[in-house]
Amino acid sequence: MNSFKSLVKKTVALLVMVSILLFSFNPTSLAQEADYFDVDDQRVELSEGSATWGIKQSWRNYIGVGLHGRGGSQLSAGAEWLDEPLSEIVWPANGGYFDPEDNSLELRLGGVAHFQSWFIEEDNSFLLDSKFQDLIIRISPDEQYIYGTYIGKDRDTFEDVILVEEPIAALDISNAEIETDGTTTTWSGITTFNTSNFPLYGEGVRFDDLSFSYMGPGGLPDVSSEFIESGTPLFSPSKVWDNGANNRAQVFPERGRDIVHVLERINPGASETTYKVTALDADDLSVLGTIEAPIRGGSFGITSEVAFDPTTGELYYQSVKAGESTTFEIIKISFDSSDSKYSYSKVYEYEAEGQEGVYLNWDEGRQNLVLLENYRVPKEGRASYSSKLEFIDIETSTAVQYDLFAALMEAMPVGSTDLDKSENWLTPRPGSVLNFNKFGFFRDGSMLLLTSGSYIDSNGQSQRMPYLRLLFESNELRVEPIEGVNPISPWPGIEYEYSSVGKAADGSLFLSASGWANVYSYIDIEDGQIVHTEPFSIEGVSTSTGPSFSDTVNSLDYVFEPSALAVRVFSNGKYFADIKSLDFSGDAAGVDRNGNVYTQVKGPGTSNMAIQKWSLDGVTPSIAEQPESHVIELGAGSSQEVTFTARAEGGTGQWAQQWQVKKPGESAFSDIDGATGESLTITASGADNGSVYRATFTGDIGTVASDEATLTVNYAPKVATQPASKDVVAGTPGVFQAAFTAHPEVEDVYWEYRSNGFWTRINTDNNFHVTTAEGLTSLTVTDTAVDQSGTRLRAVATNAAGTTMSREAVLTVRPATEIPDDGLSIDDVVLRWGISEEVQSRPPFGDSNYLSAGVSDGSALTYESTDGDVRIIHSDGTTDTEPDYASRAAHVSDATIDQLVEFGGGNAAINPDGSATVDWDGSFSINFYDGLVPFTITDPHLEVSAAGMGVLTGDLTGYEVEMSNPNEKTPLTDLYDDVTIATFSGVSIDPEGVVTITPDYDGVLADIPADVTPQVTTGAGWGAWPQGFLDFHFDTNLSSYWYSSGGAGDSKKAPMSFDVDFTNASDSGEQPGVPQASDLNAGNKGELVVPAEVEAGQEITIGGLPAGEDVDVVLFPTTFSFDRMTVGVDGTVTVIVPAGRGGENQVAVYEADKAGSAHVLGWSYLTIAGQDAQDPDPQDPQDPDLQDPGVPGSSVGSAFDTLIKIVSRIFGGLSALLGLWFGGLFSS
């Protein structure tokens, strides 16, 4: 038996290899591929390469190398093991392309990997049978997958599954590495995962890593999404105003009006100079008005400090009073928008005391002008320094003065003996301690003073001057040192100070440091205490800090950095972006009430001073609530709702929220349909483990993304494949399969059977064999018996999260049918068939598709309901009626009725191994479109192999009808004999019952001509009838009714099951015979022409036979059977004389598959020289005798003959070969 199966397997393998070769060199496929590359000139064809991908290591280890040459992990068509069997697989590259425009790549791979395990003796097939071929690597910004053709079985139903160019593995290229040397490109570090539609494992299960290389260019595509930081302003350059001169300027946008003031100093350095102020319309930078105001210097020179009230738009500066040298005036410049005119006037006057530096600022809280004056104080023949602070009320021209020096002295921890020395250190020269940029006002009205330099403490040690807080209490000034804010030490031994302070948008103070320090921070008052944020820096940037300013409406802070040619943008203590221009000139910068920023630049094409407006296009929202990662625990088969929340605030305009997910193995996120709210709730199961979620917010100016949140699911084992109940014949094995997925991984898998109400664990012994690896498990009941029928079984898996049981599967064991050693010959076998749901339905044209007995031309005159042993019946499941022409369409009007064709009088020959043939005589017709397109099937012939595979064939005749002229039909003249109408598997012949046969359809690929509607190979239930049957209907123009074409009627096209009924059949008394020497003694010597004497191994010709006849050649007395052959046109066959049969022999030629004297075509004596007549090896499959496989009439020989005949019929043409190979008929 094993020898026979080995022979069968080799035969089928050879046929499959031939089909692969034929398919590989299909000229239509090659032409389509050539056209595919001719897209655009930038795409580059790839060549000479390979990919290394083992699919899944545990899968390879589980399948193994196979036993006794059967099953295992097999590679072919160029695929090779990387090192040794079961190592990674190297697939040859057959071509592809690379497109540098978006770095998209396609690499087509050759090679076949075939994995087989769990051999089923009764079906001569493997329960686990998976084949990978035609792999394609596709990587682009839009997709990252390994596509391919997969031929296998569904893990729940064990039905055949064929995927053609479907995604098998998802690729995560986020950590991929690419190396290109100009000739070869190599990819590595690509992780792969099971896709959702691939049936081998659960979605997201990790596969082996992928690497590949090829001759040609390469590059990593950008699979990331373009997002903008939350809370980020987006600017675009807008208007420019060129003043026609090259003066240094300051810019002051108002907060109350859409006006921008530009201040220039004319003739700087002279003792008398001028401030030129220009009012610009903030919308288009047109000039609204201008003024020139004088500045006079006195004994202490000119101080160029300017203060600005952004609410009123008033500017303040000081100038020496006319005719005086130490009396100073504070001048206010105002702009009246009603008449577009400026004016200036004095608002305050004071006497200087030896001025070294005067600094002006505007206190928005008090609405006062602030004057900080450093001056010299003569003391004991040498100069010392002092400072005073004045708050000037502009409305009353009065001021409150504070002695800043005295307050400083009181606050500093110095000794009285060292007072004089400390005085000199305490107030270094102006410009070093106190300047315009170095003080600001806290929200409580107290003042921050940035200092520099050092002082001498009571121990005579030099100490760094701390920053100071100035508090104003009952007209008294108190100074508090601020600890921990300075100094800044980015590198050991190098210290820097904050060099600028400005009001932040949130009311705190924003500090910035210039030079290499590149440090920023915020300082504020909370509950009367100083709060200082952690300093932060911008990596790789050195700066020289200019003015800082803020936009309170959009919560943005800005610092102008002249050396970086950038305005830096901050929000909520975080750096976002820069406004950059190579034309920045000077350090003038400001922001208006609409968020637009203004800077000084070089005039277009000139070196003039100009003002550039940067329009605020909008601000992205801030993420107020980020989604959080979750870890959940699930019980067996359970699920749990998990909610992620993300919320955005602010931003310009409307922002649409959309949730996205990136599942394990995917390189990019994808939108979740309908998930557009603040919260996303999913029902999480084990398949969601490792998924990453985020929310996006999209508006007119771009998209903002939340943080990513990961879902970790720890779950009890989940049944990925339920065991199916098995119905077997006693003595044959029953194999049950189950698979589990889990996180963490499954720790233990075992099987149980139910006995006396309890489940009992099955231990491996001689009758039970359990195989388990990585969640896959099989139970084989090796020698089934009838008393085991009804046994209930289940698989059990456990991990740390729990225990899960599969559903129950039932073992049914039927007694083996007793077939005599010489077989059975049975008459009156009935065939009953409804063809398809399409035939049962109303057609698009006409009232019905109807059946008729005999040969029909579609007219009423040729309609018959009975013709010989053929009859048409209408059945409602309980009652059969015979229609006439008037009631031929009753099956359309009454949905409970099916029309059936019934052939009686069938003659069956059943061999001892269960293989069988059945022949019926007669014809019936299928009349499409109410008879417009009829065709006829004549003399059906059924063949079933011992393995349960088989075919239904018949002779076909019909008409060609053009759809453009359906009333005219042309008879088909080609011969359509022995056409395969149906193929099937898993059939066991019961000579006393009804055998129901379900033909193959699902997943069967068809070879469709280019001018016919193509086959659709996606969606549920796609498939085709056998190729030979389709070839016939390509001539009738009915072809698309027999394969999935994407139409609304696709679900009706599959063949219905048909019944072969033996219940009323009778034994004909004729038994299939075995060739024996007595057949030659009935006078049928014939006229065979053979040589007189031959030697073992000699090729001889046997003549005198009818040309074209299929024959069996047998050598007696050892009953050695040669392979079946066909007589040539010259009436001869050729054989090689076997060894071990020396002496006198008789050579006989029989009609194929026949025995007995009546079927002997001729015989002659044949003398074989040199050896004794014997069977040299009774067990040698290459040298059989009556007990060896392959002898016609023996159980194995009959099976082989039947198989050969089936294969001959199935593979009579290339189309049938391709269709059935892909259909999975011979999956081994």
DSSP strand tally: 87
Segments where pLDDT lies below 50 for 5+ residues? Answer: 1-41, 415-437, 1173-1228
* DSSP helical segment count: 10
Helix content: under 10%
Sheet/helix structural class: mainly beta
**What composes the largest sheet?**
15 strands, antiparallel
Can you tell me about this structure?
The protein has 1228 residues and is mainly beta. The chain has ten helices and 87 strands. The strands form 17 sheets. It has a 15-stranded antiparallel sheet that branches. Helix 1 crosses helix 10. It is elongated. The protein starts with a helix and ends in a 5-residue tail after the last helix. Residues 49-213 form the Htaa domain.
Question: What's this model, at a glance?
Answer:
The protein is mainly beta. This is Htaa domain-containing protein.
